[in-house]
Each structure stands twice: as structure tokens, then as C-alpha cells.
Specification:
The complex is a heterotrimer. Chain B is mainly alpha-helical. Chain B has helices at residues 3-25, 29-54, 57-89. Residues 159-164 of chain C have low confidence and may be disordered. Classes of the chains: A mainly alpha, B mainly alpha, C mainly alpha.
């Protein structure tokens, strides 16, 4: 078991290190190598699944990492989506050039996210956040065109302010408690966190800092630029995984694992969540750029996750964690499909599309899966996670929250059906008569994701029992 | 808290705030790199303050070394992106950023 | 103590001058000066190795990188730069100083005298390699990400090129 945890931690790093040499053997070698590295990490996650309820540590050269139920959920999300994006990139990245560097940076991003999830120390958490972020800044600018570069710089500047606040919070916590390890902090804060204003100031700095990384509404300005400008597999990673691990995971681990869920922090999360859900959905409705619409809808869906956490009861937390999994699957699916459309048509403008399903059957059908899941239609995964969040709100007697959640779920269905109709259905725009289906590797990746979103919904009971509940128990039972 | 630690925290907060101001107000991309660096100096001072308050300078030292490496990498990546930005459109004016809507 | 106060005051002055200077090269030198002063402060608290890093990496390497970038990009239109932020810096400085003063005193009133640290590492090597071993791996990863990132940004732009 220890070896498995070490594999997760080290495989992407070693892979990134070796990639430039492997790519000397040719294009196919690089493709096979990145796939192999990601398959190794995914298989490792799956091997760890039976032990989801227990914790497992790994120590090597003074490094100390640990897996528990919560880590495992996020590891599955990171590596699963990472594998699909890597496979998708094999055909997609050709026109960007720099294949080996792209794969290396993708692996380093996965390494940083895995590291964030595995470490049990506040400062290491920050460090691995920066590893993932540095890779992300470069990958956002990967097209080396104006929009990518500008979006990357905007992302970088706002992130620097965010991590600066996080570091000041870390300093305050260190000065108060004398420790940075999560276990030590939990003991030191036991009972006294809510009454110590310094610790609450640190909590506020964490909400703002990690909230910016999660693109929660008042801090969301970077996301609608960064996500559309990046290459599609990177948009999928950013939206599906990075904002969740860098933002949601960090918030969850800190406020439930260390702070023992102080009520005013939960209330803040609930309000930020509602704000994100409403603003994200309303702004998404007015977008004409395919990827920008998806980006705003990510903000809205992050809102759902925060609402579930902010409600703070069992249903809410299970729903939020389940929605992390579901959103990662369907949003990366939709971003990859938008990339396939852009790859073939060269545009992201919804108004120029229409009837693409006649020419791109796989992309069109898998998009329907993604749309139904994000809108919360049974039996897709998204239905069950939203159901749990709403149940949580009802159980907590938060009627307004429950009503808004239901209402915006229908609203989401509305604007996604509109998107589906404008892009894929209807009469084929004559311009696209010669259009072909996306290349094989890209289709494989989206078919796997579409199948997963359906399977997660159909077998939601096993998913809940095997993956989500062990994670929720870390948060609720752990303190 | 001793006077020295108080001084570190005061200077750290002040430098951090000046750094944020520089980041948010300037028009030239290269000045933004300077802003990031100023902000990092403030963070280093605050970290040192926490360590000095606890009398744990050996621990805080290793954190500060790590942080210096991170800030250097950030500065290098940022400068590289700025050079490419310059090659692409020959302007380092941040107002070009407004082409992207927030 | 007077040396410390002097260094901190000069550090703040350097940072403010950095904001006020019209010429980017002067600003870069002000940043280098701030780094040197910070490294003296680190040295006074016994953080010798961090001080050396601050001096060589921040004051040295970053300044060199920055000045190279300034000369690489000097044909760009920087003349449009507004003077407004610099003019507002001094009034804002008063506000910032008040916030920092209030914040640090507020902090001082809540931070209790520290308990003697348990299991504190005796040497830097023990702290760095022993207790913070995870961070060493993280540093390897971030340095790799930085190197590959810079290479990726400077790659030949179009596909089908010799890099593939």
C-alpha cells in the first residue's frame, strides 16, 4: 500500500523528467509514454479504492504523504480526467507544436495536484499549489497568441495576490500554534479556533485566497478569460480539476479537517456559493462564445459545491463531494467537445454553428450526455449530486437555498438546451458541409467520459458507498 | 511579542500592501513583475516574523528558502511570457488586457 | 536593534522609490536594494542560509533576468505609461502604514508568548532535508515546471516544426 501512494506521488514527476528524452524516439513514443504514465496513476488510484475507508502513509527521503477517503476521491478525479485529457491531446496538440513540453507540463500539473491532495502540511499544500499553477500559467498561454498570453498573465497576477494572502494566513497560523502539520493544527485549534480572532482572520484570508483559485464569484475575474483561451484539454483540466483541487479541496481540508467547521465560515461559504451559482448561470446565458459559456457555467457549478459544503449537514457534504466528481466528468467532457468543434470549424462562436451533429456524430451525442448531466436530468450523475444538495438544504430547513438551487438547475437545463440546439441540432449550416468527425484519440477520450457520466448515475449507489461516503466521513467523522 | 517581531510584522504588512497596490495600479507589464517581487518581500518578512516570534528560525529558514525558489520561478516564467507578448504585439500596456472582458 | 530598524525603514523606502521611479532600470535597482536589505534582516535573525539565497537569487539573479528583459523589449511603446499610480502612491502609503500599524499591534495583543517549540530541528540541514522533505520534492517539481515552461514559451511557434 505504501508503495502505491509513492507511485501516485512520483510517477508524474519522473514522467515529466523523462519526457523530453523519450520524445527523441519519435512522436508515437511521446504519445505512448504520456498515456502510460497516466494509466499507471489511474490504475494505482483504482488499486487504492478498496482501502478508501482507512488511511495509508508513505515516507521516502523525508517526504511524508498520506491517503485517506477524501484524498482518494480527489485523486480519482485528477488522474481520471488527466488520463482522458492526455489521450485527447495526442491528436489535438499537433497544430500547437512542442508536443514533449506540453506533455511534460501536463504531467507536472497532475503531479502538483496529486501533491496537494496527498500532503498533510499547510506549507507543502501551498508549494504544490504553486507547482500546479506554474504549469497552468504556461499551458494557458500555450497557443502563444494574444488572447492566451493575456489571459495567462491575468491569471498569474490574481493568483499571486491570492497565494500571498494564503501565505500570510499560514504565517498567522504558524505564529499562533507553532505548527503547520494538519494533525498538530487540529489538536491546537480544538475548540479554540472560533474564539481566537487571529485564527479567524487567517480563515478569512484562506477563504479569499483559495476562493480566488476556485473562481468563486467576487474573485472569479480570471476564469472566463483563462479557460476559453487555453487549449481544449487544458480548459478541461482547469475547469474539471484545477479549480476543484486548488480551491475546493483546500477549503474543505482546512475548514472541515483542521478548523472543525466554524459556523460563520460555513455561512460565508453558503453565501459565496449562492452568489456564484446565480451570477455564473445568468452571465453564462448571455454568452455567444462556446467555451466562455462553459467557463461561466463552471463558476455556477462551483457555487453548487460550495452551497452543499456551506449547508454542512451529511446530505449537503455528500452532495457537494459527489458534485465534485460529476462536474469534473461532464465539464471536462463538454470542454473537450467544444475543443473538437473548434478543431474542425476553427471558431468558438455559437451563432456560426448549427446542425454539426450531422457531421460530427460522436461529438454531438456525447455532448447530449454532458448537457443532461449538468442540467441534473436522471439517470445521469449530475442529477443525484444536485438531489443530495437540495435534500441537504431541505433537511437544514434552508428553504430559500433549496428553492434557488432547484430554480437554477432548471435555468441551467434551459441554457444548455439552447446551446445544444444552436451548435449540434437543427439545419446544418452550409458552411460546414465538408466537416469531418474529430480524430480518433479525441473521440475515444470523450466517449469514455460520456460513458462514465452515465455509469456514475446508473450505479450511483456503489459510487456513493465506495468513494463519496468514505470521503464525507473524513470530514464529518474526523473531528 | 518583542519589539523586533512587531517591527517585522509592521514592515511585512506595509510592504505587502504596497506590492498589491503596485500590482493593481500599474500599466506596464514589466512593472507588474516588480509588484510581484515587492509582494513577495512582504510575505518573506511576515514569515520571518512568525518564525522569530516562535524562536523557530531553523524551520522558518527552510520555508523561506522554498518560498524564494517559488518566487524566482514565478518571476522567470512571467518574464518569459512578457517577452513573447512583446514579440506578438509590441506593446507592454496592460490596457490591452481590457480586450478580454472580465 | 537600531540596525534592524534602519534596515526595515530603508526597505520600505526602497520599495516606495521603486514605485516612484520613472525609469524601469532605476526601479529594478531599487528592488535589488530592497532584496539586499531583506537579506541583512534575515541575517540578523540567524537565518543565514535564507539570507544568502535572498542575496544571490533575488538581488542577483532576478535583477539580471529583469534587466535582460527590459533590454529585450525596449523597442515597445512604453511611453503611454500613466503617472497617476505613482502620484497616488504617497497618499496611499499613509493609509497602508496605518493599516499595517493597526494590524501588527492588533496581532501583538493576541499572540501569546510562545511555548518552547517541541522537537524543533537543531540545524538547517535537519529542518530542510529531514522535516521538510516533501518540500524538497515540490521544489524539484516547480523548478522543472519553470524550466519546461520557459522552454515551451520560447519554442518555435508552428506545428510540423523540427521540435516535434
Amino acid at each position: 500500500m505504501e508503495g502505491l501512494v509513492g507511485t501516485l506521488f512520483l510517477t508524474p514527476l519522473v514522467g515529466a523528467l523523462l519526457m523530453p528524452w523519450v520524445s527523441k524516439l519519435g512522436r508515437r513514443a511521446a504519445d505512448a509514454f504520456v498515456t502510460l504514465a497516466m494509466v499507471v496513476t489511474v490504475v494505482t488510484c483504482l488499486l487504492l479504492l478498496p482501502g478508501a475507508a482507512s488511511t495509508c502513509t508513505f515516507e521516502w527521503l523525508g517526504a511524508h504523504v498520506e491517503v485517506d477517503g477524501l484524498s482518494l476521491l480527489f485523486l480519482v478525479v485528477v488522474n481520471g480526467v488527466g488520463l482522458c485529457c492526455a489521450v485527447y491531446s495526442i491528436d489535438y496538440i499537433g497544430h500547437y507544436g512542442g508536443r514533449a513540453k506540453f506533455f511534460s507540463l501536463l504531467l507536472l500539473m497532475v503531479m502538483g495536484l496529486n501533491g496537494m491532495v496527498l500532503v498533510r502540511d499547510l506549507f507543502s499544500l501551498y508549494l504544490f499549489l504553486e507547482v500546479a499553477s506554474v504549469a497552468a500559467y504556461v499551458l494557458v498561454a500555450y497557443n502563444l497568441e494574444f488572447d492566451g498570453i493575456e489571459a495567462s498573465l491575468k491569471y498569474l497576477l490574481l493568483s499571486v495576490v491570492a497565494t500571498g494572502m494564503v501565505l500570510i494566513g499560514i504565517s498567522l497560523i504558524l505564529a499562533t500554534t507553532g505548527t503547520l502539520g494538519f494533525a498538530g493544527l487540529r489538536a491546537a485549534l480544538a475548540g479554540g479556533a472560533a474564539s481566537n480572532p487571529v485564527l479567524m482572520l487567517a480563515a478569512g484570508l484562506f477563504v479569499a485566497g483559495f476562493g480566488l483559485k476556485a473562481a468563486v464569484v467576487p474573485f472569479h475575474a480570471w476564469l472566463p478569460d483563462a479557460h476559453p483561451s487555453a487549449p481544449a484539454p487544458i480548459s478541461a483540466m482547469l475547469s474539471g480539476v484545477v479549480i476543484k483541487v486548488a480551491g475546493v479541496y483546500a477549503l474543505v481540508r482546512l475548514f472541515f479537517g483542521v478548523y472543525a467547521a466554524p459556523p460563520h465560515v460555513l455561512r460565508a461559504l453558503l453565501i459565496l456559493g449562492l452568489l456564484s451559482m446565480v451570477v455564473g448561470a445568468v452571465v453564462a446565458y448571455f454568452q455567444t462564445d462556446f467555451k466562455r459559456l462553459l467557463a461561466y457555467s463552471s463558476i455556477s457549478q462551483i457555487g453548487y459545491i460550495l452551497i452543499g459544503l456551506g449547508i454542512g449537514n451529511w446530505f449537503g457534504i455528500v452532495g457537494a463531494l459527489f458534485h465534485v466528481l460529476n462536474h469534473a466528468i461532464f465539464k471536462s467532457l463538454l470542454f473537450l467537445n467544444s475543443g473538437a468543434v473548434q478543431y474542425r470549424t476553427g471558431t468558438r462562436d455559437i451563432r456560426e454553428m448549427g446542425g454539426l451533429e450531422n457531421r460530427m456524430r460522436v461529438t454531438g451525442v456525447t455532448s447530449v450526455f454532458g448537457t443532461l448531466s449538468i442540467a441534473g436530468v436522471p439517470p445521469f450523475g449530475g442529477f443525484f449530486s444536485k438531489l443530495f444538495i437540495i435534500l441537504g438544504a431541505v433537511a437544514a430547513k434552508q428553504w430559500v437555498v433549496a428553492f434557488l438551487t432547484v430554480f437554477f438547475s432548471i435555468f441551467t437545463l434551459g441554457y444548455f438546451l439552447y446551446l445544444q440546439r444552436r451548435v449540434f441540432f437543427g439545419k446544418l449550416n452550409e458552411k460546414w458541409n465538408e466537416l469531418k468527425e474529430a480524430p480518433a484519440a479525441m473521440s475515444v477520450a470523450v466517449v469514455v467520459l460520456a460513458a462514465t457520466t452515465l455509469l456514475v448515475g446508473v450505479f450511483f449507489d456503489s459510487v456513493l458507498r465506495g468513494l463519496i461516503e468514505p470521503a464525507a466521513r473524513v470530514l464529518v467523522g474526523g473531528n | 511579542m518583542t519589539e523586533a517581531v512587531l517591527g517585522l510584522f509592521f514592515a511585512g504588512f506595509l510592504v505587502f500592501l504596497v506590492g498589491v497596490y503596485l500590482l493593481l495600479s500599474y500599466r506596464n507589464l514589466l512593472r507588474l513583475v516588480l509588484g510581484v517581487e515587492v509582494l513577495a518581500k512582504g510575505v518573506t518578512l511576515v514569515l520571518l516574523g512568525a518564525g522569530a516570534h516562535l524562536g523557530m528560525t531553523t524551520l522558518i529558514q527552510s520555508l523561506i528558502v522554498t518560498f524564494i525558489i517559488v518566487e524566482t520561478i514565478l518571476a522567470a516564467v512571467m518574464l518569459a511570457i512578457i517577452v513573447v507578448c512583446h514579440r506578438t504585439n509590441l506593446s507592454l500596456d496592460v490596457r490591452m488586457l481590457s480586450r478580454l472582458r472580465g | 536593534m537600531t540596525l534592524l530598524v534602519g534596515c526595515l525603514v530603508l526597505l520600505v523606502v526602497a520599495v516606495v522609490l521603486l514605485g516612484l521611479f520613472r525609469d524601469l532600470l532605476y526601479s529594478a535597482l531599487a528592488l535589488a536594494a530592497a532584496s539586499v536589505l531583506l537579506s541583512v534582516v534575515l541575517f540578523q535573525f540567524g537565518a543565514n542560509i535564507a539570507a544568502v539565497f535572498e542575496l544571490s537569487v533575488c538581488a542577483g539573479l532576478i535583477t539580471v533576468l529583469f534587466v535582460s528583459t527590459v533590454s529585450l523589449t525596449k523597442d515597445s511603446d512604453q511611453g503611454v505609461e500613466s503617472r497617476l499610480p505613482a502620484r497616488f502612491l504617497l497618499p496611499m502609503l499613509v493609509v497602508f502604514a496605518a493599516v499595517a500599524y493597526g494590524g501588527s499591534h492588533w496581532l501583538a495583543s493576541y499572540l501569546t508568548a510562545p511555548a518552547p517549540p517541541v522537537g524543533a530541528p537543531a540545524s538547517f540541514a535537519e529542518a530542510f532535508w529531514g522535516q521538510r522533505g516533501t518540500d524538497v520534492l515540490g521544489q524539484v517539481a516547480i523548478i522543472l515546471a519553470g524550466v519546461l515552461g520557459v522552454l515551451a514559451v520560447f519554442r518555435a511557434k508552428l506545428a510540423g516544426g523540427h521540435h516535434d
